[in-house]
Amino acid sequence: MLAQEPVIRLSVFAAVLVAMALLEHAFPRRPQRLAWRRWPSNLGLVALSSVLLRLVAPAGVVGVAIWAQGRGIGLFPALDVPAWAAGAMSVVLLDLLVYVQHRVFHAVPVLWRLHRVHHADPELDASSGLRFHPVEILLSLGIKAVAVVALGAPPEAVLLFEVLLNATALFNHANLALPAWLDRALRQVLVTPDMHRIHHSEIRAETDSDFGFCLSCWDRIFGTYVAEPAKGQLGMVIGVEGLRADAQQRLDRLLIQPLKDGAH
């Protein structure tokens, strides 16, 4: 399985992206003005990030896990934790790490400038889950790599986590109208589109809430959960003030956006 890691990740990514695009078209949650015109820039960012990661760390975080496993490095090997338990705890703890990392990127001004590229999307759909500055992606790789080595996380668990992280990012950014009963049920475990959309509100208190990407429990545990936006799902304004203009959604503008001042 590990030998097929790039194929597995790309296949799941493509399948989920196509599925979300089709579902968004069939069951849209909010009307969109720019819609597909934003996709070239959002896809361009993920393409540049992928090239950068392959140049800097060709084996990725799964390769780091294989390296650590071969040397018996990490907490789980030191404690002789059974493989199944180490795998399960790795997925959960890495998801917690992403939650903490997300909060830090909101709290530290220089990191917020990088992460602001993601929030400056004036509309939200599956492509927004790909819209991250390449430097942020590189920093995230480094943070995850350190955690994987410290834990001694099994490579299979790391691969599963990476696949889940990518798939849930596409899902919870989707402009998808789920039935209220289904949203309530899913939200007990997973971050749903209606839950994560609140995080993209222009209102600061809502932007600094609902940080989870996969598991929804972290926001409840740490007091950052907001159930509904103040203006409602259809009335809330998405994006960052001053960064919504059509011209600012061009790929070149997104790449240099962290160099410019802007509101939180």
From TrEMBL:
Keyword Cytoplasm assigned: no
Residue ranges crossing the lipid bilayer per the database entry: 6-23, 43-69, 81-100
Cited Pfam families: FA_hydroxylase
GO biological process: lipid biosynthetic process
Domain Fatty acid hydroxylase: 90-224
A single Gene Ontology CC term: membrane
InterPro entries: Fatty_acid_hydroxylase, Sterol_Desaturase_Related
An example Gene Ontology molecular-function term: iron ion binding
Keywords: Membrane, Transmembrane, Transmembrane helix
Subcellular localization: Membrane
PANTHER family: STEROL DESATURASE
Protein name: Fatty acid hydroxylase
